[in-house]
Amino acid sequence: MHHYRAYGLRIRSAIRFPELMPAPNAQAADLTILRDTLTDAPAFAPERSVQVRTTNSTIYAHWANLGTYAADNGSCIRFRPAPVATPAMQRLPLLGVMMGLILHQRGTCTLHGSAVALPNGAAAFIGPKGAGKSTTAAALQEAGYPLLSDDVLALVRPAPDASINIAPAFPQIKLWPDAAQAVGQTPDMMDTIAPRLPKRAWRARNCFATRAHPLRAVYVLSFGDTLACTPMDPREAFVAVLSETYAPRFVGRYGTGADHFHQLSEMVRHVPVYQLTRPRDLTQLPDLVALLTDAPTSSRGTRPNSPLAHVSTPAMAPPP
């Protein structure tokens, strides 16, 4: 068995994960990953899109070209790979959807986005597909700010009165070739995510945050003519954050539970949320890095020469 650590979990796996940070062998594991025949899985239609079924304490997910996977009670992932799935393809759901479902089963609130550790705390980037979450995180990592997570963000709170933290995931960012080149990497020298998928895997273990960091700001990304960052009203922010939560898109609203919405409300109550727009021109990424590293990621506000000097931290109103 192989032993790793991610999202604060001790992981024991029957397969090797080059993406994960290795950990010493532990007598007990929080999460076990196993190959299995999955004879208990329900029948799935032959479509290629992901299909999810929930029975008792298990969530089943199926992809025609990847296989069938099961998340059991927050402590085990079992999977039966499709015959055509390469090892890299088999790992995609394990590190993405299934990890998000396991965290959800464990009561951890998850967002679909990326996060980086800035000097005053973690900055999280969320937004629709293609909004530039991974590109923004990669630009900051290239500037020397450690990556916390890409794709699945785990929000953890050790105690009711403690800060909301981002748990470290693993040192990999998935980038399109043009984005990889824009942050100084050579796409042809990077691993591909899967056959026929142009995205590349950037693994910078020397610039990865190995401990949880308090979440200081959430940025909702979009494209615009100019680079701009404006605070969002708490009610507007709640809707924006809710739309980018990870698990509900697979288990649905009724499989989410009241705790999930309470966790999001608490986050919006205590953490400022900003609308961040940037041009699609990747040559302007250095300006984005300059803006974010001067951005109001703490109550101290911005420095006088900051591009955001006119933006004040929004008042924390009661949650919706």
Describe the structure.
The protein is α+β, with helices and mostly antiparallel strands and 320 residues long. The protein has two domains: 2-105, no CATH class; 109-293, Rossmann fold (3-Layer(aba) Sandwich). Helices cover 22% and strands 32% of the residues. The strands form three sheets. Strands 3-1-2-4-8-7-6-5 form an eight-stranded mixed β-sheet, with helices on one face. A five-stranded mixed barrel has the order 9-10-16-12-11, surrounded by four helices. Strands 13-15-14 form a three-stranded antiparallel β-sheet. Helix 1 packs parallel to helix 2 and helix 5 packs across helix 7 (258-270). The chain starts with a strand and ends in a 27-residue tail after the last helix. Residues 295-320 have low confidence and may be disordered.
SS class = alpha+beta
Largest sheet: 8 strands, mixed
Oligomeric assembly: single chain
Q: Spell the H/E element sequence.
A: EEEEEEEEHHEEHEEEHEEEEHHHEH
- Reported CATH architecture of the largest domain: 3-Layer(aba) Sandwich
Kindly state the number of beta strands.
18
β-strand amount: 25-35%
What structural keywords apply?
about 325 residues; Rossmann fold; alpha+beta; single chain; 2 domains; disordered C terminus; five-stranded mixed beta barrel
What's the arrangement of secondary structure elements?
Layout: E1 2-6, E2 9-13, E3 21-22, E4 31-35, E5 51-55, E6 58-63, E7 67-72, E8 76-81, H1 87-95, H2 97-105, E9 109-118, E10 121-126, H3 133-142, E11 147-156, E12 165-166, E13 173-175, H4 177-182, E14 191-194, E15 197-202, E16 213-223, E17 228-231, H5 234-242, H6 248-251, H7 258-270, E18 273-278, H8 285-293
Parallel strand pairs: 2-4, 4-8, 10-16, 16-18
Antiparallel strand pairs: 1-2, 1-3, 5-6, 6-7, 7-8, 9-10, 9-11, 11-12, 12-16, 13-15, 14-15, 17-18
Helix pairs in contact: 1-2, 5-7
